[in-house]
Amino acid sequence: MVVELIKVKDIDDGIRLNRWFLKYYPDLSLGHLQKLLRTKQIKVDGKRAETSLKLVAGQEIRIPPLKEEKSINLSKNIIAQKDAEFIKSLVIYKDQNIIVLNKPSGIAVQGGTNTKRHIDGMLDALKFDLEEAPKLVHRIDKETSGVLVLARTRKNAELLTKAFRERDLHKIYLALVRGNPPKDEGEIKLSLEKIGEKSIVSDEGKKAITHYRVLEKVGDKFALVEASPLSGRTHQIRAHLEAIGCPIVGDDKYFGKSRAHFTQLKDKLYLHAYKIDLSEIYNKIKEIKAPLPEHFRQAFDCLGIEFKE
Q1: Which of 62, 88, 122, 224 could form a disulfide with 43 if both were Cys (CB 3.0 to 4.6 A apart)?
Q2: CB-CB contact of 142 with 184 (8 Å)
């Protein structure tokens, strides 16, 4: 095996170095990548680099011999036909600027340790009439379903990323929770600190605000809640609803030590990114809704919840 010198393609202009390796060398672990960078076995334009480096088209990446990690074909990101058909079936809106997917529960937005199949790895199938693949501009949890917005050009990616960061795009989630919130409508203002894979309520954490509204109650056992995050913390809605005594049904992380299983309901997370308001960037009314997944529909039928989409 020999050292390779690979030029960054135009479609990868602006991508972070770690994301580039995740895209083209999915079997290379982050720890091994960091070691190769630290020991200067991987370089960019002959210089030492960090995982966070944003690449520029035309730059040259030095790749040392990698015995165990196989690269994908760098000349073409080949996607299995079944994955191409799958990702195309998720499209609920498309124009020259964006593509909106209705992401199912159970598939990750990006890859990572032990995650080989993910939305990011299928985006080349969504080029349609453009030369470049769409780009991720925000994320939702693996087990959360619903609206996922993609930017179709680098310029739109920058615009949307800024809008998401500054909370200019209003998002509404639907959550089926255990119990009833203390009020039918209100704001949860509890700072959250990320510890490990969870966010916990902590005075040392970052400010977090979630507005919620109860849409329907099933006695005192369940409630359908509409939730809008006014800040962007990890697992914010999940942690906040748990904090007021109403964990989301099917939530492995935030339902307490022994998560309740409800025999009449499917064992999935009942959190759905239902709607996003893009009016701010379109300068006109533009709302996009993601149809409810089947496990939500079945739960509503079972519990007698009437929800009109």
Answers
A1: 62
A2: no
User: Which CATH number belongs to the domain containing residue 178 in this structure?
Assistant: 3.30.2350.10
* Residue written as token pair 């993609």: 150
Beta strand 43-44 with 170-178 is: unpaired
Residue 181 CA neighbour count, 13 Å, CB half: 25
Q: 67: pLDDT confidence band, cut at 50, 70 and 90?
A: low
- Identify the H or E element spanning 100: strand 98-103
In a domain, 240, yes or no: yes
pLDDT digits (tens, 9 = 90+) for 149-185: 999 988 899 899 999 988 889 999 999 999 999 999 9
192 and 274 within one domain: yes
Range of the domain at 151: 81-163
Q: 98 pairs with which residues across the strands?
A: 151
Number of domains the chain contains:
3
- Integer Cα distance of 22 and 277 in angstroms: 31
3-state class of 282 per DSSP?
helix
Distances (CA, A) of 26 to 20, 69, 139, 156: 9, 8, 19, 27
- Output Rg (C-alpha) for the chain, integer angstroms: 21
pLDDT at 75: 47
User: Are 282 and 247 found together in one domain?
Assistant: yes
Q: Which contiguous run of DSSP H or E holds residue 90?
A: none
**Catalytic annotation, residues:** 141
- 34 within domain boundaries: yes
Same domain, 129 and 8: no
The rounded distance, in Å, linking the Cα atoms of 134 and 157 is: 9
